[in-house]
Amino acid sequence: MVKGHDFRVFKKSKTKINPNTKVITDTGYQEIQKSYSKSALPKRKMKKNPLTKEDKQKKQELANESAANENVICMLK
């Protein structure tokens, strides 16, 4: 069983991702954007800058796609 923050666990695993692969993650993986240009993170709501309808829709689509990823991560922990 592996404990720790998801991105820290990912870095320790030294998993290689093909540069052409789209990486869909949650906001816990914000650092992944530095390594993988094709990463997709949900936009965060800010006090002074609320999400538009389009942002909310895209966020929901990403959440649906990333659910499978989160299930695999839970199995690894």
TrEMBL record:
Residue spans of biased composition, Basic and acidic residues class: 51-62
Residue ranges with Basic residues bias: 41-50
Location of the region described as Disordered in the Swiss-Prot/TrEMBL record: 35-68
Superkingdom, taxonomy of origin: Bacteria
Protein name (record): Uncharacterized protein
Source species of the chain: Holospora obtusa F1
Phylogenetic placement of the source organism: Bacteria, Pseudomonadati, Pseudomonadota, Alphaproteobacteria, Holosporales
